[in-house]
């Protein structure tokens, strides 16, 4: 018997897979980016199904609100290729497809090798357990992940500075 | 428990028993009632939206020394209905070069991104859609969808003005999202939760957060206006430059959705301002009688909406680079500084007497504001003094 | 407030750094803003220290307000802070002098932002040494303090000075502030090498750097080490410690960096250098050498006393021989710090006896007192240097009528430095002499010669600057000297008040020191 | 108020006056001197109250019958060093004369510094006032005395000085005594150098401070020794504790065979040598005349030099700890020798001085020598008695001489001839008519100094010292002191004759003028004591007068010691000697100098021959010190310890190390790094022959397309993963 | 209730699709899109393991967040590089950017 969460999962998984295929196959890059949005939205739903509410929302904020928009911007800023309706895959695409297939098969093989533990079901959330404050504590407490968190923020800062520097139009100088 | 103390629960129980009486299975009935609730909420929002059109037109007229709609109904209150009829029966044009699918999705997404905000609004003490524990972030996420709709509209129109408008809007939204998130964190820090209900409750039990973070509410208001794309930050429309921005190619009800979305968005942000800094539905007897609370809430939201309008019709539009510079060089650093100050004072003082805590918060805000003004003043003085000397040489 | 209560020491320690980082974000043209921010934020640690003082329990044994954080677990070093009466008095001195030095620095016009930031970093460096309860942390802060000071001398030192570098290979002239800063840096670093090695040895040996644990284990250590007898290793390590601290105090014959560094440093730099940095060395003796090496210290107490006496006597002589006002004051530091070491040497000779306790009381009080009076003296030299742009004593003369208030303050502070009873210097010198006389009578007697010459050089300074016929050069026209201004008086006022209070009623401070000495060394 | 409280409060008014004047009122002259004099008056009243309460206590001074109170001051390990106040008979009588003289000096200073006179024309802070020009109602211009520019400051310093002295007198231990002692040292420095712009004053101030400091550091050592040997510095616990004294007397100090008691006493005594200007540290005191005259009075009579003697009187039990009443101990001999030698030595110099104040200065040194000598031979009461009487008459003499100088300055301003030194006695003469009050009081003071029989205080006290010397058979001391007393009478009469008697020798002396009441009133008051104070100590067996009045002083002060000293047996021989030397000296002085005319050299110059310049130049002691002490010390400071040791030896070693390191470094770079590593290994072997060809060969594999690399990478990764999976896991 | 394996297979599919995109697409931006897919695939795994494992151990979520940060950084730098390259060479086709070939 299939229950509501499974329905939602299957729907979103379908959305994800279809959208992802569209991402890598459509010619119009803007469409590809919009399909990516769709994929990411599906992933957000999957997070919601997994009861990771913060991640679900953050997924929307970060991926759709920022990353996807940036992609669209970038696509529009490089208009010459946007207009070309030529083939969007390179000469090696068959090789790529093959490798991707091998990877999928290998992964599936490995996953299936784990047997019974694969059928593990999620435990019920304990009463009064707030994953968000647990997450918050884990992120900033020294016993948790304060250091990786800080490193990530430094990484972001570096990326910020770096991308501004790289994208700066030096021709004007 | 009666209708006046908990209307939603009463209605829910009544509907459940009604459906149960029809022989419906309980899960199904539950789903049905929930769907019904969603529909009712959306309907209320949209009906409110209709009247917002009237309010907007009335208020702008007053600002401009006119009367505004005054023919249809008392005070022209039924004016929106002819408007809607006009929009609906207008010709629906889709340009040739447009990307049709995207072009059609955009207005829906735009209005949808606003309506989903209503899911988390605590309208009164026991009246709310869902008590999401990441609601504050959810607002931003919904905003992200709005951004997406704008860029979709702009791009799919295949019109350079539309695209330019979309670019501007997106740049503004992404930029001003940062101080806004930072200011959403202020109540979050004070309460220790992102749930809007918890935030409201904390203000009911304590003081309105305006008193703890006056500067925060100001920054929030400014970034909200920018987020809404209203004057003085309405660069996305910029009639004199890019004609009408991203919805230039839209007509009829598709345009109507953008328009409705914008008005409702502004009203909703008035509501958020009320929730985050002015106690939400808090008022005399609001806790006991939720409908009274809802009344207060709408009043406060309308006040916020009025402030947004007030600014819109008073302040002229500014240049895009000024706007971005204003955000990145001023508002963002300030909001981060405020966030740090708030967090520090909060941690240091939370065990002290309550009045002391409030006083410390309030004064630290004022102090930071004063410091900022001083720095700005000396900065502008330098700029000012630099000019004549440069002219000299 | 709970956070501050439980993290009082680290708040005191790191607040200056925090303030420095805040200043980092100020535009460098906003000189007034930077200055005031630095000054006001340096008052915070002072206020907290005063609060700390009120909460401190002098009776309690061991360290108080301890904080431990894991720091470098792989080598068993933890970030361990704590205070006892000894470090508390030094922390008070540091946090008191820093705001005054910053206020004194308001006249600095060049690169104000960097200057203020370095100064705040310097404060943290110094406080760290006093607060550290972990040998490795101690060493880290010990070295950290050097860097800001190096730059302060190198960048803001007197710009014109030149120094002849003489050696058998020949001599050449170089920029005095470069020379002085380099000498200061290299000298101290060289001294720390042995210290670092000894510290490492202890850490490896006992798998901890915790002071209290090390004291217990190391003094009881017996057996062989590196194929040598433990006692021999201890002697070597003792000298490694001693030389590192002796360089910093500084003790004759390692003192020649001091006149150069003090003379070339900016005014506030000299204040802090003399006021606090020199104390680090003496503090090292008290905190580490005596507890770690009671046996060796006793064995070599005579040598230490010899060096101390040489410092006292030759410091005084060399001071008297100066024509540069600031160098005169600088050598006076050698002379005064000699008394500190004399007290320590006496205590080392018979640790735990009442005489030793009195000598230690005197030594610690002398550290505090010298901090006040030397800082005051350097500041006053700086005041007149800023106006006259010369420190040559022969170029002054008879300035008292032109600058009467300055003159009065100079005489007052000089008298404190001279050890006039009724002012603070006397109490500590008396205690040192009292404590060391029965233990080291000959050295004490000889050091009296230095005490005599203290008077000589102090009076020489006053005589050459204030008294005598007026040098008309300074009375009129563009060279006319102006009297000390309100800001400068505000710098001096707390110092003078403390000098007087400590001279008349030293009990409030000495009681804490005395209890600490009893708990530490008996 | 409890007496102890009053005692605690005694030093406070002048101290507060110092701070008040320095910080607040220094702009207002009237306010400043009101505060100063008012403070002195308050302390004076307090002192009198204490003194008379002490008189009313029975058995005052014995055991617990004293005023004492103390507080803990310095924590020293488990114990405290207590400090406090105490008034016993000795301090009571000292307090009495200190209070009187200080009050008189304060009052006198008002007039001396020309309060109420106009501001000077060219007066400058740091220099004595030069006079002011005023125009009277008729349009005539006069030059009159001008007010001191640093008037307020003077009262401030004087206040601090008084506070120091009161502290010293009331303290119950040597440490606070030392505190007051040193504060007075500072004040003497400040006041001697009051006119600091005069190089002579500046140098004199430093000389005073440094010379006394020589004594002070020894004293500090003595304190340290005493403190460590007994664990206390309190008078009561050391000097009134037989056990402690006995222990100290028994312990050897390992220095010159002295007992600990003796060594400590000598170390402390060196402090007195400095402070009370005994040979060989006497050199500062005559130079100290550079200060204003009230200061001279303050230093030489009321306070500082008395403090030195007072201290020796205090430590008398220690000094005599291992003395059994017969032969003098080593320590006592030293003290006695120094005192006696100083007495005669200073008296000889005084004979040949021309400056009115210098004569008094040497007479002070000489008289202090009397007291020290008395203490050295165990004459406790006599020394104390002479200390008190001397304070009164010497204060009187100094103030009188100040009055004379003041009068002479008046004359100098009148004639406008500034080359005339108003202090040189050869420029005076005949002043008795111009300044009658000054003359009569000076005469009283002079006679008291000479020991004019019966009516003057000086006679009684000096006679007692000689009687003591005689009674214990110290013949050498007796003869020397008698000679000194003869010389004293002689130079005193020389001074009086040259100054007041005869005819004016200069125009300035003709125009001298009596001084205002603020100056003459103190003279009159002190004159009363210079005459009358002797009567409290008349020996009981003195023919005629003895027994008329009880020998109050002996009984009262004697109670200070544990064993009350016996009064010496009366003998006519010392009485005869003192009569002879006093009257003889006076007569001789009058005879020699009564006919001196202007421009005539000193009548003594011829008979004394080469001795005269020797005496006039003070036995060439200043020159001796300059050559044997100051010069070598300066050399050690400037040349040896700074230039040679620090700059050349220590720094030279450092620089040598540094340059050696530099040389090693540059050699390594030039001869190893550059040629071998860089060129040979790096350029030739590495780059040219090996890596370049290999690189060229391999570069062909690079297509430059990122995705082809990626495909390769993924493929290899899969291969490796497969291999790992198959063969390892 | 959804078993763990569903998520794992979903993630494997997504990862492979992403990999294909990376390897096969010509346009540099499209390559980056592929990378995003792969990163999301990883994230699904991380969150799923968190949900199925010990709920109190937040490692999975934390690392998902760090992956967000890395993705954001990667996109920012990547896209700016693309734009920079586009400005210089007027193309974003990966194959045409073969300056690195020998």
Describe this structure in words.
The complex is a heteropentamer of chains A (173), B (393), C (522), D (729) and E (102). Chain A has 173 residues and is mostly helical. Helix content of chain A is 72%, strand content 0%. Chain A folds into two domains: 1-84, Up-down Bundle (Four Helix Bundle (Hemerythrin (Met), subunit A)), CATH 1.20.120; 131-173. Chain A has helices spanning 4-25, 29-49, 53-77, 79-83, 93-112, 131-140, 146-167. Chain A is globular, with a radius of gyration of 21 Å. With 729 residues, chain D is mostly helical. Among the domains of chain D are: 389-613, no CATH class; 623-703. In chain E, α2 (28-52) runs antiparallel to α3. The termini of chain E are far apart. At the A-B interface, α2 and α3 of A face α5 and α6 of B.
The pair of chains with the biggest contact is: A-E, 94 and 74 residues
The span between the termini of chain B is 81 Å
- Overall, the morphology of chain D is elongated
Oligomer: heteropentamer
Total number of β-strand segments of chain D? 4
Mean model confidence by pLDDT of chain D: 84
Low-pLDDT segments of chain D = none
Unreliable stretches covering 5 or more consecutive residues of chain B? none
Largest sheet of chain B: 2 strands, antiparallel
- Total domains of chain B, how many? 1
- Measured on Cα atoms, how large is the radius of gyration of chain B? 23 Å
What is the molecular shape of chain B?
Answer: globular
Proportion of residues in extended strands of chain D: under 5%
> End-to-end span of chain D in angstroms?
102 Å
Q: Please state the structural category of chain D.
A: mainly alpha
List the keywords.
heteropentamer; A: 173 residues; 2 domains; 7 helices; D: 729 residues; mainly alpha; two-stranded antiparallel ribbon; 4 strands; elongated
List the helices and strands and how they pair.
The complex is a heteropentamer of chains A (173), B (393), C (522), D (729) and E (102).
Chain C: H1 2-6, H2 8-24, H3 31-55, E1 64-72, E2 77-83, H4 85-104, H5 112-131, H6 135-144, H7 146-156, E3 162-167, E4 170-175, H8 176-206, H9 211-219, E5 224-225, E6 228-229, H10 230-248, H11 257-264, H12 267-292, H13 294-299, H14 301-320, H15 325-349, H16 354-388, H17 404-418, H18 424-436, H19 441-465, H20 486-504, H21 507-520
Antiparallel strand pairs in C: 1-2, 3-4, 5-6
Chain D: H1 3-9, H2 12-25, H3 29-56, E1 67-76, E2 79-87, H4 89-112, E3 132-135, E4 141-144, H5 151-170, H6 174-192, H7 199-230, H8 235-239, H9 242-250, H10 260-275, H11 284-287, H12 293-302, H13 304-314, H14 316-319, H15 330-351, H16 356-376, H17 380-415, H18 431-434, H19 436-450, H20 457-471, H21 475-500, H22 507-510, H23 517-532, H24 552-558, H25 572-593, H26 605-608, H27 611-616, H28 621-698, H29 706-727
Antiparallel strand pairs in D: 1-2, 3-4
Chain E: H1 4-24, H2 28-52, H3 59-89
Helix pairs in contact in E: 1-2, 2-3
């Amino acid at each position: 018997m299939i229950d509501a969460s499974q329905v939602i999962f299957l729907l979103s998984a379908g959305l994800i897979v279809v959208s992802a295929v569209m991402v890598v196959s459509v010619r119009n890059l803007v469409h590809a980016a919009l399909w990516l949005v769709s994929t990411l939205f599906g992933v957000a739903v999957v997070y919601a199904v997994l009861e990771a509410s913060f991640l679900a929302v953050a997924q929307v904020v970060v991926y759709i609100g920022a990353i996807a928009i940036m992609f669209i911007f970038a696509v529009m800023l490089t208009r010459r290729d946007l207009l070309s309706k030529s083939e969007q895959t390179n000469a090696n695409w068959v090789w790529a497809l093959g490798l991707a297939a091998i990877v999928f098969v290998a992964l599936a093989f490995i996953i299936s090798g784990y047997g019974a533990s694969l059928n593990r079901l999620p435990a019920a959330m304990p009463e009064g357990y707030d994953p968000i404050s647990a997450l918050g504590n884990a992120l900033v407490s020294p016993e948790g992940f304060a250091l990786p968190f800080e490193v990530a923020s430094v990484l972001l800062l570096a990326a910020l500075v770096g991308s501004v520097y790289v994208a700066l139009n030096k021709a004007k100088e | 428990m009666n209708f006046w103390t908990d209307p939603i629960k009463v209605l829910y129980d009544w509907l459940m028993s009604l459906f149960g009486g029809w022989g419906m299975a309980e899960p199904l009935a539950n789903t049905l009632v929930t769907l019904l609730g969603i529909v009712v909420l959306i309907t209320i929002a949209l009906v409110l939206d209709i009247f917002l059109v009237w309010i907007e037109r009335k208020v702008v007229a007053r600002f401009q020394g006119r009367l505004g709609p005054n023919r249809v109904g008392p005070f022209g209150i039924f004016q929106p209905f002819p408007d809607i009829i006009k929009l609906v029966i207008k010709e629906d044009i889709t340009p040739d070069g447009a990307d049709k699918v995207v072009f059609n999705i955009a207005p829906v997404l735009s209005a949808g991104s606003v309506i989903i905000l209503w899911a988390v609004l605590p309208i009164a003490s026991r009246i709310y859609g869902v008590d999401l524990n990441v609601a504050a972030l959810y607002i931003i996420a919904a905003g992200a969808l709005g951004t997406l709709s704008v860029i979709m509209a702009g791009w799919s129109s295949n019109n350079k003005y539309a695209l330019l408008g979309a670019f501007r809007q997106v740049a503004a939204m992404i930029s001003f999202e940062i101080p806004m998130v930072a200011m959403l964190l202020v109540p979050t820090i004070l309460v220790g939760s992102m749930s809007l209900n918890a935030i409201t409750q904390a203000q009911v039990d304590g003081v309105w957060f305006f008193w703890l973070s006056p500067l925060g509410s100001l920054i929030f208001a400014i970034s909200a206006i920018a987020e809404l794309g209203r004057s003085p930050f309405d660069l996305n429309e910029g009639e004199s430059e890019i004609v009408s921005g991203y919805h230039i190619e839209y007509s009829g009800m598709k345009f109507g959705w953008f328009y409705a979305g914008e008005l409702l968005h502004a009203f909703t942000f008035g509501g958020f301002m009320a929730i985050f800094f002015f106690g939400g539905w808090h008022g005399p007897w609001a806790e006991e009688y939720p409908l009274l609370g809802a009344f207060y809430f709408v009043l406060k939201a309308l006040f916020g909406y009025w402030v947004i309008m007030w600014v819109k019709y008073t302040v002229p539009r500014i240049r895009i680079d000024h706007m971005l510079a204003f955000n990145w060089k001023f508002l963002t650093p300030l909001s981060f500084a405020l966030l740090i100050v708030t967090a520090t004072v909060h941690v240091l003082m939370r065990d002290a007497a309550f009045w002391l805590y409030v006083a410390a918060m309030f004064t630290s805000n004022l102090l930071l504001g004063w410091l900022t003004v001083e720095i700005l003043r000396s900065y502008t003085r330098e700029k000012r003094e630099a000019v004549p000397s440069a002219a000299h040489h | 407030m709970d956070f501050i209560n439980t993290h009082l020491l680290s708040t005191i320690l790191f607040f200056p750094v925090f303030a420095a980082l805040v200043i980092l974000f100020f535009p460098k043209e906003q000189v007034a803003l930077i200055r005031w921010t630095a000054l006001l934020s340096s008052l915070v640690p002072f206020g907290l220290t005063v609060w700390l003082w009120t909460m401190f329990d002098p009776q309690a044994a061991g360290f108080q307000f301890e904080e431990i954080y894991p720091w470098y677990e792989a080598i068993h070093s933890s970030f361990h802070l704590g205070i006892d009466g000894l470090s508390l008095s030094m922390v008070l001195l540091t946090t008191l002098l820093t705001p005054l030095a910053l206020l004194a620095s308001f006249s600095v016009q060049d690169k104000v932002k960097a200057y203020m930031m370095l100064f705040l970093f310097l404060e943290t460096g110094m406080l760290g040494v006093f607060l550290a309860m972990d040998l490795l942390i101690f060493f880290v802060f010990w070295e950290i303090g050097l860097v800001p000071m190096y730059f302060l001398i190198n960048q803001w030192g007197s710009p014109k000075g030149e120094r002849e570098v003489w050696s058998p290979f020949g001599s050449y002239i170089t920029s005095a502030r470069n020379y002085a800063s380099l000498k200061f840096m290299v000298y101290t670093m060289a001294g720390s090498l042995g210290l670092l090695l000894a510290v490492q040895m202890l850490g490896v040996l006992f798998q901890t750097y915790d002071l209290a644990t090390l004291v217990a284990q190391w003094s009881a250590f017996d057996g062989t080490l590196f194929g040598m007898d433990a006692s021999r290793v201890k002697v070597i390590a003792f000298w490694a410690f001693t030389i590192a601290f002796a360089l910093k105090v500084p003790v004759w014959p390692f003192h020649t960096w001091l006149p150069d560094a003090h003379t070339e440093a900016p005014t506030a730099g000299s204040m802090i250098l003399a006021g606090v940095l020199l104390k680090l060395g003496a503090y090292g003796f008290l905190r580490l050498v005596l507890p770690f090496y009671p046996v060796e210290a006793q064995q070599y107490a005579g040598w230490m006393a010899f060096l101390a006496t040489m410092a006292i006597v030759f410091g005084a002589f060399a001071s008297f021989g100066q024509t540069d006002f600031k160098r005169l004051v600088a050598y006076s530091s050698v002379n005064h710090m000699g008394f500190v070491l004399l007290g320590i040497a006496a205590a080392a000779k018979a640790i735990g006896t009442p005489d030793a306790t009195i000598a230690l009381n005197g030594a610690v009080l002398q550290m505090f007192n010298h901090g006040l009076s030397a800082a005051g003296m350097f500041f006053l030299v700086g005041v007149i240097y800023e106006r006259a742009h010369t420190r040559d004593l022969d170029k002054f003369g008879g300035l008292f009528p032109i600058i009467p208030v300055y003159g009065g303050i100079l005489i007052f502070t000089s008298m404190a430095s001279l050890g006039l009873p009724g002012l603070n210097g006397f109490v500590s010198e008396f205690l040192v002499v009292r404590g060391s006389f029965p233990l080291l009578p000959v050295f004490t007697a000889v050091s009296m010669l230095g005490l005599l010459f203290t008077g000589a050089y102090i009076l020489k300074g006053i005589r050459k600057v204030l008294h005598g016929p007026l040098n008309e050069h300074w009375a009129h026209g563009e060279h006319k000297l102006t009297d000390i201004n309100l800001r400068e008086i505000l710098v001096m006022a707390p110092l003078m008040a403390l000098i007087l209070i400590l001279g008349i009623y030293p009990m409030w401070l000495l009681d804490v020191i005395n209890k600490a000495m009893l708990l530490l060394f008996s | 108020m409890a007496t102890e409280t009053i005692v605690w409060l005694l030093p406070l008014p002048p101290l507060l006056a110092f701070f008040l004047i320095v910080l607040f009122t220094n702009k207002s002259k009237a306010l400043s001197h009101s505060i100063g004099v008012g403070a002195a008056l308050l302390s004076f009243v307090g002192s009198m109250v204490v003194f008379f309460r002490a008189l009313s206590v029975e058995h005052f001074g014995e055991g617990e019958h004293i005023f004492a109170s103390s507080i803990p001051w310095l924590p020293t390990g488990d114990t405290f060093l207590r400090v406090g106040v105490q008034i016993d008979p000795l301090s009571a009588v000292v307090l009495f004369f200190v209070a009187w003289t200080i009050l008189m000096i304060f009052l006198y200073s008002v007039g001396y510094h020309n309060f109420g006179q106009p501001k000077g024309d060219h007066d400058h802070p740091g220099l004595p006032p030069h006079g002011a020009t005023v125009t009277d109602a008729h349009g005539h211009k006069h030059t009159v005395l001008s007010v001191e520019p640093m008037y307020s400051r003077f009262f401030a310093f004087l206040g601090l000085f008084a506070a120091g002295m009161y502290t010293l007198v009331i303290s119950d231990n040597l440490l606070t005594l030392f505190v007051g002692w040193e504060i007075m040292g500072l004040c003497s420095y400040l006041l001697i150098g009051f006119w600091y712009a005069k190089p002579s004053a500046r140098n004199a101030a430093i000389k005073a401070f440094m010379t006394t400091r020589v004594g002070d550091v020894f004293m500090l050592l003595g304190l340290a020794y005493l403190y460590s040997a007994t664990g206390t510095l309190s008078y009561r616990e050391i000097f009134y504790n037989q056990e402690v004294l006995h222990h100290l007397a028994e312990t050897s100090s390992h220095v010159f065979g002295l007992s600990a008691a003796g060594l400590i006493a000598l170390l402390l005594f060196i402090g007195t040598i400095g402070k009370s200007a005994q040979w060989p540290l006497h050199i500062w005191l005559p130079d100290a005349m550079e200060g204003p005259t009230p200061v001279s009075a303050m230093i030489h009579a009321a306070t500082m030099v008395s403090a030195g003697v007072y201290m020796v009187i205090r430590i008398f039990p220690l000094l005599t700890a291992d003395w059994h009443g017969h032969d003098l101990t080593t320590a006592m001999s030293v003290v006695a020798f120094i005192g006696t030698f100083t007495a005669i030595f200073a008296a000889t110099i005084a004979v040949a001085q021309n400056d009115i104040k210098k004569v008094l200065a040497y007479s002070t040194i000489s008289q202090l020598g009397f007291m020290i000598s008395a203490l050295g031979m165990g004459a406790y009461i006599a020394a104390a008695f002479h200390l008190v009487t001397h304070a009164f008459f010497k204060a009187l003499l100094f103030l009188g001489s100040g009055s004379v100088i003041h009068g002479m300055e008046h004359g100098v301003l009148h004639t406008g001839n500034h080359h005339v030194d108003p202090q040189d006695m050869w420029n005076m003469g005949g002043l008795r008519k111009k300044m009658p009050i000054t003359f009569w009081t000076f005469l009283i003071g002079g006679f008291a100094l000479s020991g004019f029989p019966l009516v003057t205080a000086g006679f009684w006290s000096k006679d007692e010292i000689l009687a003591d010397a005689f009674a214990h058979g110290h013949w050498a001391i007796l003869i020397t002191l008698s000679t000194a007393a003869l010389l004293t009478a002689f130079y005193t009469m020389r001074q009086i004759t040259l100054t007041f008697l005869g005819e004016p020798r200069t125009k300035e002396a003709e125009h001298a003028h009596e001084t205002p009441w603020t100056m003459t009133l103190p003279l009159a008051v002190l004159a009363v004591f210079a005459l009358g104070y002797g009567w409290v100590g008349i020996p009981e067996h003195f023919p005629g007068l003895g027994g008329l009045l009880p020998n109050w002083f002996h009984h009262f002060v004697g109670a200070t010691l544990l064993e009350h000293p016996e009064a010496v047996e009366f003998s006519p021989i010392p009485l005869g000697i003192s009569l002879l030397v006093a009257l003889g000296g006076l007569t001789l002085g009058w005879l020699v100098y009564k006919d001196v005319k202007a421009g005539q050299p000193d009548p003594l110059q011829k008979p004394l021959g080469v001795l005269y310049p020797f005496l006039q130049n003070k036995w060439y002691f200043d020159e001796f010190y300059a050559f044997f002490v100051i010069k070598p010390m300066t050399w050690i400071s400037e040349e040896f310890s700074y230039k040679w040791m620090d700059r050349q030896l220590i720094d030279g070693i450092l620089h040598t190390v540094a340059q050696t390191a530099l040389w090693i470094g540059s050699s390594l770079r030039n001869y190893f790094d550059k040629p071998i590593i860089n060129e040979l290994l790096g350029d030739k072997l590495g780059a040219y022959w090996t890596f370049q060809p290999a690189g060229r060969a391999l570069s062909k594999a690079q297509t430059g397309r990122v995705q082809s690399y990626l495909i390769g990478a993924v493929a290899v990764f899969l291969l490796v993963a497969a291999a790992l999976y198959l063969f390892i896991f | 209730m959804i078993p763990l394996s569903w998520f794992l297979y979903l993630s494997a599919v997504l990862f492979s699709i992403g990999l294909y995109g990376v390897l096969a697409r010509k346009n540099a931006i499209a390559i980056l899109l592929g990378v995003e897919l792969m990163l999301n695939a990883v994230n699904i795994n991380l969150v799923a393991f968190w949900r199925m494992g010990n709920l109190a151990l937040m490692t999975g979520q934390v690392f998902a967040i760090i992956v967000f940060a890395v993705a954001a950084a990667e996109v920012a730098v990547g896209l700016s590089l693309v734009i920079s390259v586009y400005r210089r060479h007027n193309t974003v086709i990966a194959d045409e950017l073969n300056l690195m070939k020998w």
